[in-house]
Amino acid sequence: MDESDFSIFKKNSSRKSKHDKADATRATGNNSQNANDPWNNQAEDAIKKVIISRPTDEDEYNCFNPNAGIALIFNHKDVKGQKQRAGTEKDRDAMIATLLNYGFDVRVYDELTFAEVSEKLKATAQEDHSQNDCLIVVVMSHGLEGKVYAKDMSYPVERLWNPFLGENCKSLINKPKLFFIQACRGENLEKAVTFTEFAPMSRQIETDVIPPKPPTITYAIPNTADMLVMYSTFEKYYSFRNVENGSWFIQSLCSVFDEAAANEALSPKGAEFLRLLTAVNRKVAYEYQSNAKNEALNQMKEMPNFLSTLTKTFYLRVKRRSKTSD
User: Which GO terms of the molecular function aspect are on file (predicted)?
Assistant: First the structure.
């Protein structure tokens, strides 16, 4: 995987390149003119501060906080200049029920403008997440390559997670920030292919013992660490939604999470998150195909996928709550 795969996580990189060089010079150089000035001691200490990167033996996120976390749902049925997204209420209501079942503080927003979406994201980033396991943001809308729609306009998908980067949201550092986007990413159609194989033998996987909480140590990690973005479809491809039953992706996501909530997510260990997402990929890939009167749209498939900068294993656990909030 080359660095172009991570370009969506970059924030104004081209405009900051000159400043980055200047900042590096300031951080490592000596200011001889102010060396003997007692009023500048604090500034000198900040300039000379050295950041040390070190390894860690901690390989699991802490999922034993009092709260599951905040879950934002942005649902768009009517988008300016676009066809109405019939059936999106099914996705919204299913997602609400699933996340409430896990104990998330679910906040639902219908038909917001881009300015309103930005305001909600920034306000949430300013909250204290120190007692939460993670953050979830779900967007259901129309989309383009690299963009998603609010009620009034499209915007780059990175606007969803920029408020939650480490430099912008300190209380979510070292906590998973999880984004789920149900939207088209282009106009290409995913064709079906076939294969044949022998039935595999069953096997049983043993669960590990819950590790003790590690001691407090200061670490230096990337600004974009601990994020995961899951898309309903592959880049440049179409995403399917049934007007009566909702979208393939959101319905599959809720189905897999609901099943886990009745089983392993109830255990002290919880359900391994990436395994659940892989199950979502598998469910959509194997169980769904289009049935359209238009032959060009008939018998087509869809392939969800995710991009992850998670640095540890995350286990999703059921923590009951009883209400939604705005």
Answer: cysteine-type endopeptidase activity
Query: Which one is predicted more confidently, 32 or 168?
Result: 168
Residue 254 falls in the annotated catalytic set? no
- Domain count for the chain, please give it: 1
Indicate which residue of 129, 142, 169, 254 is catalytic. Answer: 142
Catalytic residue among 63, 134, 169, 184: 184
pLDDT tens for 79-132 read 999 999 999 999 999 999 999 999 999 999 999 999 999 999 999 999 999 999
- Clarify whether 63 is annotated catalytic: no
How far apart are alpha carbons 318 and 67 in whole angstroms?
A: 10
Distance of CA 158 to the CA centre of its chain: 11
Cα–Cα distance, 41 to 43 (Å, whole number): 5
Has residue 200 been placed in a domain? no
Under a CB-based contact definition with an 8 Å cutoff, are residues 314 and 64 in contact? no
The average confidence (pLDDT) of the chain is 84
- Asked whether residue 208 is domain-assigned, the answer is no
Answer whether residue 77 shows pLDDT above 50: yes
Q: Return the CATH number at 227.
A: 3.40.50.1460
Q: How confident is the model at residue 190 (pLDDT cuts 50, 70, 90)?
A: confident
Quote the domain boundaries for residue 174. 67-190+223-316
Are the CB atoms for 229 and 181 separated by under 8 Å? yes
Q: Determine the Cα angle at 221 with ends 219 and 226, to 5°.
A: 120
